[in-house]
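note to self: dont lose this again. the chain is below, predicted strucutre after it. 130 aa total, dont forget to put it in the shared folder this time
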Amino acid sequence: MSLFTILFLIGGCATLPKNFDRPKSYAYPDTNDTCLARALHDQLDAHPGQSGFLLLTSGVDAFVARALLAQSAERSIDAQYYLYHDDLTGRLFTDQLLKAADRGVRVRLLIDDIVLEDSDFGAAVMESHP
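---
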């Protein structure tokens, strides 16, 4: 068995620490007073208890939509990404999230940070932002 295989198997058995501080955080229950909710009031009333979506067919459209939503966010941004790279798009979106946080918007970002392995500093900066 090669040294690489042994190290790979040992690494696969590693566990995360069981006791670490995890502050409780929940989605805001009432966002009816935001501009976005007011703009969508009729649609929300027509479909109570349901969620909606808009298919975006290009990456550019998807990025612009995310950037505009981040710029117009008033209370919170909850985003979840599997692929979040330290590239131009990732940096531009991160900039929008940090600007939103600077405006007092609560930003919760859940990402698979395995793709950020070469940019631990960037992840640390996002984590430490107030």
